[in-house]
Structures are given as structure tokens and as C-alpha cells.
Amino acid sequence: MSNSSLVLPGLPSQRLYFLDWVRIIAFFLLILYHVGMYYVEWGWHVKSSHASSAIQPLMMLTSPWRLSLLFFISGVASAFMLEKIATGKFLRSRSLRLLLPLIFGMYIVVPPQAYLEVVEKLAYAGSYNEFMQLYLHRFRGFKIEGKVLDLPTWNHLWFVSYLWVYSVLLWFWLAYKPAWFQAARSCLQKQMKGWRILVFPAAYLAMVRMGLLSSFPPNNGLTGDWYNHACYLFIFTFGALVANSSTFWQELAAMRWLALRIAACGWLFLIIYFNIDYPEAPKWLLMLQRCVWVCMGWSAIIAACGYAKEYLNVDSPARRYLTQAVFPVYILHQTYIVIMAHSMKPLALPALTEGILLIALTAATCFFSYEIIRRVSFLRPLFGLDIGFAYKPRSLSPG
């Protein structure tokens, strides 16, 4: 993103600081979520001896919407960036901000996650250097839960690869068919008012989930991931199309309470559904669950943005600092969680103590690392930052 805050065209005094805050909060929820993945029964890279279903309802609170929210905000940010700079510069900037950290992450940041996964699940006895030789040579001999472990891997950085692809598609659309983009923007903004904001996107997402999820379950591998693309590309594009509509953002604030109630009811339904013990859910109930999933997720996005518009549309030194820090923290956080969780196992701490300590240590090491990264010129672009040491009020960069 450029070095200025998002400004609505024609409304220079109305800045979208609230979306910075939503993005900051959403990314930091990932720390809590990925620490939680260590303690639930769902599959993950490493697992605690305390793993159970106890906190799965809390995990379900954000599962349907946290990544969709990030893609939505990324679409908004990309649209504003394209309105400020030429399309060619946009593509170069986006590629440097996303592809360089992705490649660096895949070969430097992420490998410890894969190494500790094979150590814990396959009792791999080789050293890290020996594992890295296999990693770099695309070894296919590690099989976990019936699946071959793909090496090299991007693990949690899959979001960055998807974001780059979607940014390229948006660039292509604006570079070659700008009139089509403006027509789509005008049409959508006329329709997205009142109840339509809640119903129309949710209806599309429900049809996609009912029609594609079984045939194309998410794989986060970019290719063949048709369900994820049908959802995330739509939400990213939706964000780009509504970005400059002051009416749209006012509508979100007006319907925040309704959206919050819908999301809360959806969350309760999902908790009940996933705690019913039956051999196989009837087809109609499965389809209902999928509809509720997307309704809950989309309503939560509307509520989050609406409440932020009403109460967090303010600038501060904290916003400027965290806007800079959030992407490096995102790149590093899961590797730190995996390393520290594995290292703490011999201590045999109680689950609550261990979990709180893991969250605190992850946050501390991430921000300590950021303080180093932002001061070292050659490290900054590897983590999506501008070259050079500066405190600039950037907004929604790089996602």
C-alpha cells in the first residue's frame, strides 16, 4: 500500500482508519487461533498432550470468517492503491511486497514447522541440517495420516500466495478492461444497501459452499483449490468494488447490531451441530449447516467492520506502529508457536499455564523480532516493509 492512509475519493477528510484496526485485530487473532490449534483435536503440525475438544467452540467463533475478513480488507486496500499509482507500479510493488516474503518464508521461516512435525509424528531422528537437505530436494518420503508431506511448503503463508494471485487478477482487470471494472463497481454499489448487504453475498457464498465444498475441500495449495478460490476471490473482489463508497461504510455501521445478532445465533447453531453425536448427518442438515456457516461468517465481517467504523475510526501512534508490525508478526508467529510448544513439552506444565505462557512468549518474540527487522535495511523487504528505517503512517500494507 502507499504511504498515505486510505482516503475516500472526493472526501479527503474521511479516512478509513477503522479498517487498519480491523486488520490489526484480525491478524492478532491468528496468534490466539494457532495457539488454540495446538490444544484442539483438529489436525495440526504439533499437538499438546492436553489436546481435547474443550476450546473448540471458541475456535469456531472465528473459523467461518477470520480469513475472509482479511481478503475483504485486502481487496479494499488494493483498490485504493490502484487509484493512487499506475497499474504497472502496482504490480511491481505488490510482487515485491508479497512474493519476496513468501519465498523467504518458505525457505527460511517455515521449515522448522515441517521439521518438528516429522519429529513428533514420524519420530524422525535426523538433524535439522539433514532435514533441510531433504526439504530443498523436494523429498516425498514423509507420509502423515495417509498424505505425503509436500516439501517445500508454505504452511500458514498460503494466504500470501493467494493474495498475490488475486492482486494480479485485479490488476489485469483494471489494466485491460477499466470500463468493465467501473461498470461493475457502479452496479454493485447501487445494490449494496440495507438488507441486500447481508443477504446477497451470503446467498452466493452459501451456494458455493453447498455446491463445491464436498468435491473440492480446501487444500491451501493454490492449484485445484476451487472452493477456496470461489469464496476468497469473490470476497477480495467485493472489497475492491465497494472500497470508495462512503454510503456502503455508513450502511455497515447502521446494521452492525443486526449483523452481530445473526452471527451469534449462527455460532450457537454450529456449536450444537458439531456436538451432536450421530453416525452421519442427513443431507438436508448438512446443507443447512453449510448455509449457517457462511451466514454466520459474512454477518461477523459486517459486524466487525460496522462496529470498527463507529468506534475505531481514529488515528494514533499505536495504529501507525501496529500497521507496520502486523505483517512481519504474521510471517513469524506460527513458526515461533511450533518451536516453543515443542520445546515446552518436557516441562509438563498444566494446560492453562502452558497456553498463557505460549501466547505471551509468541507475542514477545514476534515483536522483539520486528524491532530488529525494522532497523535492518536488508531484512525489511524480506518481511514486506519498505526499504529504510522510518515511522510512516502507512495503511493496510501489504495486504
Give a concise summary.
The protein contains 15 helices and 4 strands. With 399 residues, the protein is mostly helical.
Give structural notes.
This protein is mainly alpha-helical and 399 residues long. It is built from 15 helices and 4 strands. The strands form 2 sheets. It has a two-stranded antiparallel sheet with strand order 1-2. Helix 1 crosses helix 13, helix 1 crosses helix 15 and helix 5 runs parallel beside helix 14. The longest helix has 29 residues. Pfam families: Acyl_transf_3. GO terms for molecular function: acyltransferase activity. Keywords: Acyltransferase, Membrane, Transferase, Transmembrane, Transmembrane helix.
Indicate how many domains the architecture comprises: 1
The sequence of SSEs as H and E is EEHHHHHHEEHHHHHHHHH
- Give the number of DSSP strands: 4
Strand order of the largest sheet: 1-2
**If you average the pLDDT, what whole number results?**
91
User: Quaternary state, please?
Assistant: single chain
Q: What is the molecular shape? A: globular
Low-confidence stretches: 1-13, 390-399
Distance between the termini: 8 Å
Radius of gyration: 21 Å
The helix count comes to: 15
Provide the helix percentage: 55-70%
Structural class estimated from helices and strands: mainly alpha
Strand fraction? under 5%
Largest sheet: 2 strands, antiparallel
Protein name: Acyltransferase family protein
GO molecular function, one term: acyltransferase activity
Organism: Undibacterium umbellatum
Domain Acyltransferase: 17-368
